[in-house]
Design brief:
By secondary structure, the chain is of the alpha+beta class. Among the domains are: 238 residues, 3-Layer(aba) Sandwich (Calcium-transporting ATPase, cytoplasmic domain N); 229 residues, no CATH class. The strands form 8 sheets. Strands 18-37-36-35-19-31-34-33-32 form a 9-stranded mixed beta sheet, with helices on both faces. The two termini are 35 Å apart. The N terminus and C terminus are likely disordered.
Length: 1267
């Protein structure tokens, strides 16, 4: 066996370099720095980490408290904070000022405040200040209450997190404390399944060599376990609680930052320095798995300094971002419209004030009573009249509209909460709207950014099918679920949870006659890095596996059930039970998996003495290494294609027998490569590649990564709604792409752009400053982008140049003669050439020009990427950090001004959820962090379809109709004040009765418009789901925009003109008890015409008629009749003639049939054109279209599009469905023996050195006294 580090090599010490003082101590390689050496240096040496500003000493609060940081001028505060989390926006002192500050960001509130101030000036106001002051206070109170309720929920979730228990070393024992009591420098004890409360340096654990297995699903979305390892120094020395209490090591490291996969520092202890990296760090949010107990030193904690979220220091919280104030597009549009209305009102008031001045100046001698202030100038009176008109016309920005909109938003949110069709019964999770002001935004979403793990998938991987020697074995048709009788009773090691069963295959295995079948299952039992857990405590009679990935766990479990049981392993052997016979194989070398190799191999010596290489990996790399291609190989390719169609995750299995002399020669080269100090990894890769040749194909496996229920159907429906779906995941690219095919985000005819192609296209776009993405030909191609986080960083920093003309650099003859690299270069060049021609780009990259110097390169690169990605039907970003997820969302919002939605279920999705316009959290297995930071909560991804297409669309339609109708009725009722001013000398005298003005928006017209905002449905829920294309109207802002606003204003002005001048025209030159030429009767006629006209308008608007709808209309008219009769009655006139001056004006109008005919005529003139435009003309047009279709007969529109010629990425046309979520580095630990126990029942070195209960420093608790 070779002796390279991490591959069975003996541990070596490197000699110190001449002339350099220092001691060197070998320590295990971390997962992120393979092949590095841990150094320990004398403290007298120059500090190489002087740039590091973060210094923490263990068990020394006084030392850590001395560090201060400057905040402002000479004000300083403690540099290291406590571990208190506060994600809420407000506290007791900041709520009132901060909430008022946020509310007065609305222009409408500033306008109302100005009007209230004007109303408090006696010389200007014609109305009491409380007429607008009281509604204003109500509006602010309603919104503040809503914000307070939302923030109280955040406070509750914060308290739940801060009060989680943990064990902190205090004195000479560990005591139970809360997370919020943690401080930097504390030593914490964590047990199995505990969540890490802060970023900590791992000091020791009960596992061999102080390994600690963690689940990082909350951080990067990966479900496979990762390992962290303590320093050998702390592992060997900190073996008792007494030694732990006396530990005074000092950690010097980088300041808190958001880099999730990077950490650099050193530990100073006992006059030595030990280098630290991310492999020694336990991040907040990780969960301890398969490790009984571990101990850590808190380095970064999450403090919170008075409304300053920047106080967070842990990496996960640094990635979470700040809480953003989210406002809908309609809300932002209303801000602009309020400004437009305000300017229009000011202009109208100026015109009326100037008109008043000219009128007074011309008729002052004849009409001396016009001036209410004797001795004042015309200019002064015009000034006061201007402000009087401004108060009178302030109702054109109706405050009641904003008050009612709050109730409408609240009601639509409640309907989401009450929808039983979005209730997820298995986990008892109902849909919930945590934000009550974003429901209409759900109807305008154009981009959905989704996490993968736990959002699209169930995190459950199962063995589904296999192909052995060209023959496919799937689950029996009659055994699609768990069989009635266990078919594996003959195998005492079988796992009863495995559902896969194939009687033919099982019989073939038990017969033990087929060598291919035997080697197939033997490979699965040998070629892996799975460990057997100590199960004597949990399940004494069962084997418990500890797998680095769920894929490996599923494969080893399948082999176990078919009689090839992985029993145990040591540093250089592996023991399996083959059909009841125990066999020990000597492990000669483990060639670990990584994302570049895409394969893993194990070289073993069989008990018979023969040497065999077992390899599993991607089909693209295995088929290139086969000895020959025959019928079996072609049959396996067909099986792989079928597996890919079923979106299963595939691996190919192959093996070869190795002659003894070949192995000896290879082992010598392997040892030489493993001893290299430079380019060791490249040398080892070359040696591995030499061995992994001339393989014999055994078959392939197919694992199902189960999607959540209804995911493909939901994505298909959302795509029909013109919604683009991007998947942002921290998982591997192969896994993400496979899930993309499974959920139908990608299809077989989708052209997936590779990173080189993306760089070239964007570079040419950058150089030409040409919007190449608007080419018509682009719509003919189904494009998809698949990129990773590293490429995204490089892309947005600087676009790398490709060769000027790659096709010209490839020799045609060499391309076809060389089967590997040059052929791939040619295929890539041909493909790139084809893409360039398709996009209309020059083949050669444009030369660098001086004109680029003055351009904003960063913005141009970002814009180019967003433009290209937005034209693709699908975008999958792999290996992205939480901060990168938020960056992608922010870029789309920045350059496209669209409504975005982010959905996820883990802490790694928080930043994305906060950044998007709408954040949806799934209550899943990763915890409630995403839910606590979301705007809406769902139990499953499939409910997103109903949330958007039904509730979102309904909310948008309701709000738009509500706003359009409210502006119409406001203009229809209030513009008559302007027309009346032309006939009363521009004095600002109101036309209507004061009570009509006060009750118009409160009782007379409120109920119907409130019904529209809460219950209106243009189509049913079923039709909304059946016709998802209806959703496009919200994306294009068709139902309410500037043009619709102008139409509503024009319609309202037209209605006011008809009501006023029709009544004025007929009432001229009339007198008598039955006439309405007096001011009061005239005002009642105009008011009645206005109310009936807007009632007919609401009748034409409403499409969802119910008994409640009819009741609201009748109640509104009833309220008007009752209140008008009461306010114009004799008995109220006797009580206060000044308050109720309209005596019997209503009776004068109602008792005259001619006056009622005037009202009917006005209403008819206002209604008939609208009826013709909205009902009659569309109906006739639809009828005519149907008749023409019948006359023409059936016809087929043939639309041919030139297809994009298919250029294979590799030599084969079949899509690879390879996916394997293995974590690199486990092979090193196995061959080093650092994670292997010496034998059954033998614990680790730490455990053997732990305290006995009799020691003087032993704690009263057994867990605290020894490990």
């Amino acid at each position: 066996m070779g002796d390279s580090p991490g591959r069975g090599a003996p541990q070596r010490r490197h000699k110190a370099q001449p002339g350099r003082a220092g001691k060197y101590e070998w320590r295990p390689e971390s997962p992120t720095s393979m092949g590095s050496l841990g150094q320990t240096e004398d403290l007298q040496d120059e500090d190489r980490n002087s740039a590091f500003t973060w210094e923490v000493q263990a068990n020394n609060c006084a030392y850590n408290a001395q560090f201060k940081e400057k905040v402002f001028l000479c004000w300083q505060r403690k540099k290291y904070k406590t571990n208190v989390i506060r994600t809420a926006k407000y506290n007791f002192f900041s709520f009132l000022p901060l909430n008022l500050y946020e509310q007065f960001h609305r222009v409408s509130n500033l306008f109302f405040l100005l009007v209230i101030i004007l109303q408090s000036i006696p010389n200007i106001s014609t109305l009491p200040w409380f007429s607008l002051g009281t509604p204003m206070v109500c509006l602010l109170f309603i919104r503040a209450t809503r914000d307070l309720v939302d923030d109280i929920g955040r406070h509750k979730s914060d308290r739940a997190i801060n009060n989680r228990p943990c064990q902190i070393l205090m004195g000479k024992s560990f005591k139970q404390k809360k997370w919020q009591d943690l401080c930097v420098g504390d030593v914490v004890c964590l047990h199995k399944d505990n969540i890490v409360p802060a970023d900590m340096l791992l000091l020791a654990s009960t596992e061999p060599s102080s390994l600690c297995y963690v689940e990082t699903v909350n951080i990067d979305g990966e479900t496979n376990l990762k390992f962290r390892q303590a320093l050998m120094a702390t592992h060997k020395e900190l073996t008792t609680i007494k030694k732990m209490a006396s530990f005074q090591g000092t950690v010097t490291c980088e300041a808190p930052n958001s880099r999730m996969h990077h950490f650099v520092g050193c530990l100073k202890w006992n006059d030595k320095k030990y280098s630290l990296d991310i492999g020694n760090l336990l991040l907040r949010g990780c969960r301890i798995r398969n490790t009984d107990t571990c101990y850590g030193l808190v380095i970064y904690a999450d403090g919170y300094v008075f409304a300053n979220p920047a106080g967070f220091d842990t990496k996960i919280m640094k990635n979470c971002g700040k809480i953003h104030l989210k406002r809908t597009k309609l809300d932002l549009l209303m801000n602009k419209l309020v400004v437009v209305i305000f300017i229009s009102v000011v202009l109208v008031c100026l015109v009326l004030a100037f008109s008043f001045g000219f009128s007074v100046k011309e008729f002052k001698d004849y009409h001396y009573y016009v001036s209410g202030v004797h001795g004042s100038s015309v200019a002064a009176e015009s000034f006061f009249i201007f402000w009087g008109f401004l108060i009178l016309l302030s109702v054109t920005i109706p405050m009641s509209m904003f008050i009612l909109s709050e109730f409408i938003y609240l009601g639509n949110s409640i309907f989401i909460d009450w929808d039983v069709q979005m209730y997820y019964q298995p986990q008892d999770v109902p849909a919930k709207a945590r934000s009550t002001s974003l429901s209409d935004h759900l109807g305008q979403v154009e981009y959905i950014f989704s996490d993968k793990t736990g959002t699209l998938t169930q995190n459950i991987l199962t063995f589904n099918k296999c192909c052995i020697n060209g023959r496919v074995y799937g689950p029996d048709l009659e055994a699609t679920t768990r069989p009635k009788e266990n078919p594996y009773l003959w195998n005492k090691f079988a796992d009863g949870k495995l559902l896969f069963h194939n009687a033919a295959l099982l019989h073939l295995v038990q017969s033990n006659r087929d060598e291919a079948v035997r080697e197939f299952w033997r490979l699965l039992a040998i070629c892996h890095t799975v460990m057997v857990r100590d199960s004597h405590r949990e399940c004494p009679d069962q084997l418990l596996y500890q797998a680095a990935s769920p894929d490996e766990g599923a494969l080893v479990t399948a082999a176990r059930n078919f009689g090839y049981v992985f029993l145990s392993r040591t540093q250089d052997t592996i023991t399996i039970v083959e059909l009841g016979e125990e066999r020990v194989y000597q492990v000669l070398a483990i060639m670990d998996f990584n994302s570049t190799r895409k394969r893993m191999s194990v070289l073993v010596r069989k008990p018979e003495g023969t040497i065999c290489l077992y390899t599993k990996g991607a089909d693209t790399v295995i088929f290139e290494r086969l000895h020959k291609r025959g019928a079996t190989e072609f049959a396996t390719e067909e099986a792989l294609a079928a597996f890919a169609q079923e979106t299963l995750r595939t691996l190919c299995l192959a093996y070869r027998e190795v002659a003894e002399d070949i192995y000896e020669d290879w082992q010598q080269r392997h040892q030489e490569a493993s001893l290299l100090l430079q380019n060791r990894a490249q040398a080892l890769q070359q040696v591995y590649n030499e061995m992994e040749q001339n393989l014999k194909l055994l078959g392939a496996t197919a694992i199902e990564d189960r999607l959540q229920d209804g995911v493909p159907e939901t994505i298909k429906c959302l795509k029909k709604s013109n919604i683009k779906i991007w998947v942002l995941t921290g998982d591997k690219q192969e896994t993400a792409v496979n899930v993309g095919f499974a959920c139908e985000l990608l299809s077989e005819n989708t052209l997936i752009l590779e990173e080189k192609e993306i760089s070239r296209i964007l570079e040419t776009y950058w150089g030409n400053s040409n919007n190449l993405l608007t080419k018509k030909s682009l719509s003919q191609v189904k494009l998809a982008l698949v990129i990773n986080g590293d490429f995204l960083d490089k892309l947005l920093v600087s676009l790398r140049k490709e060769p000027r003309a790659l096709v010209q650099n490839v020799n045609m003859d060499e391309a076809w003669q060389e089967p590997s690299q040059s052929r791939r270069d040619f295929l890539y060049a041909s493909r790139l050439s084809l893409l360039c021609r398709r996009f209309g780009l020059p083949l050669a990259a444009p030369p660098a020009q001086d004109s680029r110097a003055h351009r904003s390169s960063e913005m141009l690169q970002e814009r180019a990427f967003v433009d290209l990605a937005s034209k693709c039907q699908a975008v999958i970003c792999c290996r992205v950090t939480p901060k990168q997820k938020a960056l992608i969302v922010a870029l789309v919002k920045k350059y496209h001004q669209v409504v975005t939605l982010a959905i996820g279920d883990g802490a790694n999705d928080i930043n994305m959820i906060k950044t998007a316009d709408v954040g949806v959290g799934l209550a899943g297995r990763k915890g409630m962090q995403a839910v606590q930071n979301s705007d809406f909560v769902l139990g499953q991804f499939c409910f997103l379809q109903r949330l958007l297409l039904v509730h979102g669309r309904w909310s948008y339609v309701r709000i738009c109709k509500f706003l359009r109708y409210f502006f119409y009725k406001t203009m229809a009722s209030m513009m008559v004040q302007v027309w009346f001013a032309c006939y009363n000398g521009f004095t600002g005298q109101p036309l209507y009765e004061g009570w009509f003005l006060a009750l118009f928006n409160l009782l007379y017209s409120t109920l119907p418009v409130l019904y529209i905002g809460l219950f209106e449905q243009d189509v049913s829920a079923e039709q909304s789901l059946e016709k998802p294309e209806l959703y496009v109207a919200g994306q294009k802002d068709e139902l309410f925009n500037y043009w619709v606003f102008v139409q509503a204003i024009a319609h309202g002005v037209t209605t006011s003109l008809v009501n006023f001048f029709m009544t004025l025209w007929i009432s001229r030159d009339t007198a008598g008890p039955a006439s309405f030429s007096d001011h009061q009767s005239f005002a009642v006629v105009v008011a009645l015409s206005c109310l009936l006209s807007i009632t007919m308008e609401v009748i034409l608007i409403i499409k969802y008629w119910t008994a409640l709808c009819v009741a609201t209309i009748l109640l509104s008219l009833g309220f008007y009749a009752i209140m008008t009769t009461a306010t114009q009655s004799f008995w109220l006139f006797r009580v206060s003639p000044k308050t109720f001056p309209f005596l019997y004006a209503d009776l004068n109008v109602v008792s005259s049939p001619s006056i009622l005919l005037v009202v009917l005529l006005s209403v008819s003139i206002n209604t008939f054109p609208v009826l013709a435009l909205r009902v009659i003309f569309p109906a006739l047009k639809e009828l005519r279209a149907k008749e023409e279709k019948v006359e023409e007969g059936p016809s087929e529109d043939i639309f041919t599009v030139e297809p994009l010629p298919h250029v294979h990425r590799e030599s084969r046309a079949r899509r690879s469905s390879y996916a394997f979520s293995h974590h690199e580095g486990y092979a090193d630990l196995i061959t080093q023996g650092t994670i292997l126990r010496r034998g059954p029942g033998v614990s680790s070195d730490i455990a053997s050195e732990s305290l006995n209960p009799s020691d003087e420093e032993a704690s009263s608790s057994p867990k605290e006294s020894h490990w």
